[in-house]
Specification:
Number of strands: 3
Order of helices and strands: EHHEEH
Helix content: 25-40%
Shape: globular
Number of domains: 1
Radius of gyration: 13 Å
Length: 71
C-alpha cells in the first residue's frame, strides 16, 4: 500500500485558503491530522479525505463537529 503525502501548499491550493491558515490551525490544534518529519509538515491523503468527509452537511442548519474535526 502506497501512502500519498501532501504539502501544506497542496492543501491550501486544494481548499483555496492561505497556507498561513493551515499553520494557524496547527497552532490551535484544529484542522486535519498531519505529520511532522524532519521539520517538514506533511498531510496523508487518507487524513485529508477523512477530514473532508466530516465536513459534509445536509443543510445550512446542520451542526458542525467540534472545532478541528479530526485531531
Amino acid at each position: 500500500m502506497t501512502v500519498k503525502y501532501l504539502t501544506q501548499n497542496d492543501i491550501a491550493q486544494r481548499w483555496a485558503i492561505s497556507p498561513r491558515t493551515l499553520e494557524r490551525w496547527r497552532w490551535l490544534g484544529i484542522g486535519p491530522r498531519y505529520l511532522k518529519i524532519r521539520g517538514r509538515v506533511r498531510y496523508r491523503q487518507e487524513d485529508i479525505d477523512a477530514y473532508e468527509a466530516e465536513q459534509v452537511r445536509g443543510s445550512t442548519s446542520a451542526t458542525a463537529p467540534a472545532l478541528g474535526g479530526v485531531s
